[in-house]
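Weekly modeling sync, notes
Attendees: S.R. (lead), two postdocs, one rotation student

Agenda item 3: backlog of single-chain predictions. S.R. asked that every request posted to the team notebook include the full sequence so nobody has to chase files. The rotation student volunteered to paste the first one in as an example of the format we agreed on. Action items at the bottom.

Example entry:
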Amino acid sequence: MVYIEAGPGPHEESCPFCAAPKMDDEKALIVARGEFAYALLNLFPYNSGHLLVCPYRHVALYDDATAEEVAEMASLTQTAMRVIREISGCDGFNIGMNQGRVAGAGVADHLHQHVVPRWATDANFFPIIAETKAIPRLLGETRQAIADAWPRAADAGSLSAPDAP
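Predicted structure, as returned to the notebook:
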């Protein structure tokens, strides 16, 4: 809501997804960097481990992204799911993109995909009654756990997709 209520602003100077890659990974909450895209924790998470996967390039819509950006975003999303499942034991995921402000995008002019871990017990009365969401872990701790578990090029097979039958 902070992004939405702030309204539109100038593009790259105030775009958090353009600024993040220029910062230290810990400060920017980045867990992994690729050639065309990167993954970072959402500063305003719905659940603990809520990641965003973004292209480096300032592009607003999915159909404006290059094939390389789309492919790397997909790969980062798959790896994020495997890592989060491994370290948190989540039961499922919400994955999606809100395209444009009218569709609910808080940062409408820089493409980003949400990867939200879900647990069978993650819904309770807090968000409805108190308009509050309890997050059981600090962002810095979550970033470190995910970054530490993220496979490096040398050990990428450890969290690879299951073998095809």
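Discussion: group reviewed the output briefly. The two ends are 45 Å apart (CA to CA).
Action items: rotation student to repeat for the remaining queue; S.R. to check formatting next week.
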